[in-house]
Amino acid sequence: xxxxxxxxxxxxxxxxxxxxxxxxxxxxxxxxxxxxxxxxxxxxxxxxxxxxxxxxxxxxxxxxxxxxxxxxxxxxxxxxxxxxxxxxxxxxxxxxxxxxxxxxxxxxxxxxxxxxxxxxxxxxxxxxxxxxxxxxxxxxxxxxxxxxxxxxxxxxxxxxxxxxxxxxxxxxxxxxxxxxxxxxxxxxxxxxxxxxxxxxxxxxxxxxxxxxxxxxxxxxxxxxxxxxxxxxxxxxxxxxxxxxxxxxxxxxxxxxxxxxxxxxxxxxxxxxxxxxxxxxxxxxxxxxxxxxxxxxxxxxxxxxxxxxxxxxxxxxxxxxxxxxxxxxxxxxxxxxxxxxxxxxxxxxxxxxxxxxxxxxxxxxxxxxxxxxxxxxxxxxxxxxxxxxxxxxxx
Length: 394
Known about the structure:
Layout: E1 4-8, H1 11-22, E2 27-33, H2 38-44, E3 48-53, H3 64-68, H4 90-93, H5 107-125, H6 127-130, H7 134-145, H8 150-162, H9 170-184, E4 199-204, H10 211-225, E5 230-234, H11 240-253, E6 257-259, H12 263-272, E7 278-282, H13 291-304, E8 308-314, H14 319-329, E9 336-340, H15 350-358, E10 362-366, E11 375-377, H16 380-388
Parallel strand pairs: 4-7, 4-8, 5-6, 5-7, 8-9, 9-10
Antiparallel strand pairs: 1-3, 2-3, 10-11
């Protein structure tokens, strides 16, 4: 019993391959679309697979009515169980008696055929991994352990396998995979304060993601390390503790601070701080499902006319939640992404799905509560290494 598998971009091309190599009397045992998911179709396009044999004949499953009137067209639903060619071989013809009734196959042979089909189906689920080298399978395992979604991990490994780079060594495969993802990620670099004075940067996001602490870290770094003139504005008047927290930081670093609650107050605050190098704006946390609060935030930002709006998201959240939040806050004009609390998660692989869905460049990463430390400018290669859960050997 010999079974061969053929792949092509269309089902007709796959059938042509079967006919060319096995002949017109070959029997199709199994057909399927290889790249069934949307992501795989986008990456590699559609591909179809046919398992066929020229030594095995599948018993007919047609009712006697169709057997007696064999000249009638065979229903499409039985196509995968019939010989590929329209001209039936002598061997297959002999499977039908002169009375028009199907020849009864032994129960053991039918069960053997059913087991074979099930084996082919199970094998198709893992066929991709069977074509991977040990090094590629190792990096795939690394990504799964780092919480990279399985479909995304498979796509990345396939891209690596189809590339011309050397991946026979595990460490080389990891290095090239980091390179591959680094090219995909986009970053903004640090906030630019050299172009002009009065640059306004707002931080927005849901509650509890660390906006106020991130504002304090940025202010301290630009004031103490960059020697820039920095001012603070807070519109987080919903939480008294948030105002006092930011005021404490402003007093320690010796920064001017404005508390704003209306669009008019926002205009006046911006005018008073216009001569500074950088104005950092802390906003109240908003639920992405609260349309009223989102509109209020949009109105306040319209008065401030910020040069940059950074969406702050906590890495602790799920990929689905973060992606939905990013989509909702896009209505206020977000231009960059800040990822916080990286120290509180075991794996960062879920962030890959977020960066792909929200299409925002990443500006800063934070990994602790220490001010002014525990914040860094996002770098493509380092971020790729962290997301993939791999060490960089370069």
